[in-house]
Amino acid sequence: MKTVDLGKVRSTLWAAADELRANSKLTPVQYRDPVLGLVFLAYAENRFEAVRGVVESKASARNPATAADYKARSVLYVPDESRLSSLVDLPEGDDVGKATDDAINAIEAANPELKDILPRGYRKLERSTLIELLRLFAPLPTQLSGDAFGFIYEDFLSNFAAQEGKGGGEYFTPYSIVRLIVEILEPFQGRVFDPACGSGGMFVQCAKFVERHNESASRQLSILGVEKTDDTVPLAKMNLALHGLSGDIRQANSYYEDPHSAVGAFDYVMANPPFNVDKIKKDQLAGDRRFPFGLPRADNGNFLWIQQFYAALSPTGRAGFVMANSAGDAGHSEKEIRKQLIESGTVDVMVAISSNFFYTVTLPVTLWFLDKAKVGTPREDTVLFLDARHIFRQIDRAHRDFTADQIEFLANVVRLYRGEDVETVDGSEALLAENFPDGKYVDVGGLCKIATRAEIEAQGWSLNPGRYTGTVAVDVREVDFIGDLTALYEEFATLSDEGDVLRSKVDAAVQGILDA
Q1: How far apart are CA 318 and CA 196, in angstroms?
Q2: In a 10 Å sphere around its CB, with 0-12 CB exposed, 13-18 middle and 19+ buried, how is residue 373 labelled?
Q3: Residue 268 in 3-state DSSP?
Q4: Is 319 helix (H, G, I), strand (E, B) or coil?
C-alpha cells in the first residue's frame, strides 16, 4: 500500500480498537496481548495465502503439501480453523471466545516454534468486544501486504507503550531511533545480541537492513536475546515470527545471569537498557568477566550495561545502544570506567539525540557506538561526535522522530568518517551537499567533530557530543541556550528524583516517631 493509505489504515485501526477498549473493563496491558494476537493471525493468514497457490501446485494426491513446505518459504502453516476469516464467519450461537482460543492452539500445534508464545484467554473478553475486534482485523489479509502488517504491529506496540507509560517503554523503543542505530551499526551478517530486548524491535530492524541490501536475513543473521519480564518474551517471539524470523530469546535478568555465554561471542550488540537503575546487588557480580573495567561504586547500573555490551563483542564486533546523557559526563568511579573504555580504542561514534523521542523519558539521550575492529587502524585514536539535537521532525507537542532522509543523512556522516560509500536511496542528497559539498568528511560546526584521545582527555574524558561539536555560527545564542537548558533540566530532574526519595524517608522517620 502507499504510505498515505497505510497511515490512514493504521490510525483507523487504532482508533477503532482503542474505542473498544475504552468501552470494556480491560486495562491497556490486559487488552494489548489479545489485540496483537489477532493481528498476528491476520498476518499469518496473509503470508500463507500469498504462497499457497505455488506450494499446492507442486503437491499431489500422493505427496500433499505439508507444513514443512511452507516453512521452507519462511511462512507459517495456518490450519483452516486458525484463519481470522473463518472466525468472523462463525454461526451466531457459537462460542467465539473458545473458537479463537482453539485457533491459537491449532496454529501453535502446526508450528512448534510458536509453542506457548501466542496470547490466549479470548473467552475472558466480552463477547461483543471480541466480535467487533474480529470484524475489525479479519479483512486485513486482503487489504495489506506483508511489510504493511509489520508496520501495523509496530504501530500497535508504540500506541500501547504510550498508554502504558513507563511500563510500556520497557518493551518498546521508537522505530526511528532503532533504525538510526541499525544504519550506523551496519549488521550485514553474523550473530546479533540484545540483552534487554523488549519486544525485539532491534532484531526486526536488523533484518530489514539486511533485506534492503538484497540478502536473506534468516540466512545472514543469528538472533539471540535476553528479556527480564515474562510477559514481554512472547511479544518478542511474536514480533520475530511476524517478520519471518526465528531467534533464541531467553527470560533472565541480565545483571546477574548470562544465559548465552555472551563474553566475546557476538558480531553485533544492540540495546535500549533501563537507565539509572539502582539497588543492583553488586556483591553478586564480583569476578564476572562481563565487567572487565571494574564495578562502579555509584548506585547506578549504567556502566554495568555499557561493560556488558563491550564484553559481548567479538574482536571485530560492533555495538550500538541508547544511554542516559549523564553517563557521558559521570564522575568518580564511573569516569574511571569510561576512561578505560576510551583508552581501549573501541569507542567509535557518539550521537546526541534531542528530548521527546521516547514515551518513558522526555529528556534527551545519547547513542553510543563501539567498534572493536577499529583497534589498530587510523581511527583507533579518534571518536566521531555527532550533535543531532537540532535534527528531528515534530510529530505533536510531546513527540519527535527522525524522517527517513534525516536517518540516512546522520548514518552517511558516519560512513564518510569511516571512509565508506554513502547511501542516498532515502533522499539525503541535499543535506549531504549542504554540509559536505566535496563529498568528503569535514568537521561541521554544530553538527560533527572528530576528536582525538588527547582532546577527550583534556575534556575530563567526557563523551558528551556538545562539548566537541561547538555551535552553528548563525544560531549561537539559540544553540547555546538549548544546550545549557538541556543540561540544567537533566540535573534538575535527577535532583528532584533524589529529593522525592529523601522526602519519603524523612516522612517515614517522622511518622515513626509520632506513632511511637
Answers
A1: 17
A2: middle
A3: strand
A4: strand
For residue 421, how far is the Cα from the chain centroid? 26
- With a cut of 80, say whether residue 494 has pLDDT above it: no
Mean pLDDT of the chain, nearest integer:
86
Separation in Å, CA 334 to CA 23, 299, 381: 49, 10, 21
Which helix (H) or strand (E) covers residue 371, if one does? strand 365-371
Grid cell, residue 291, equals: 565487567
Tell me if 3-161 shares its fold with 177-392+443-467: no
Q: Containing H/E element for 234?
A: helix 232-242
Better-predicted residue by pLDDT, 265 or 499? 265
Q: Say what the pLDDT of residue 484 is.
A: 45
> How far does CA 162 lie from the centroid of its chain?
15
66-101 per-position pLDDT tens digit: 888 888 787 889 999 999 888 988 888 899 999 999
Does 143 or 453 have the greater pLDDT score? 453
Strands 221-227 and 365-371: unpaired
Look up the CATH superfamily of 177-392+443-467.
Answer: Vaccinia Virus protein VP39 (3.40.50.150)
Mean pLDDT of 203-219: 89
| CA–centroid distance for 414 within its chain | 20
Spatial contact of 307 and 260, defined as CB atoms under 8 Å apart: no
Domain layout of the chain by residue ranges: 3-161, 177-392+443-467, 480-515
Backbone phi, then psi, for 445, in 5-degree steps? Answer: -55, 130
CATH of domain 3-161: 1.20.1260.30
489, 363 Cβ separation under 8 angstroms = yes
DSSP state of 36: H
Apex CA 438: angle with CA 436 and CA 443, to 5°?
Answer: 40
H or E segment and range at residue 269? strand 266-271
Please tell me which of 213-217, 222-226, 355-359 the model is most confident about, judged by mean pLDDT: 222-226
Residue 316 phi, psi dihedral angles, 5° rounding: -120, 15
Give the predicted TM-score (pTM) of the model. 0.81
- Convert 335-371 to b/e letters by CB count within 10 Å (16 or more is b): bbbbeebbeebbbbbbbbbbbbbbbbbebbbbbbbbb
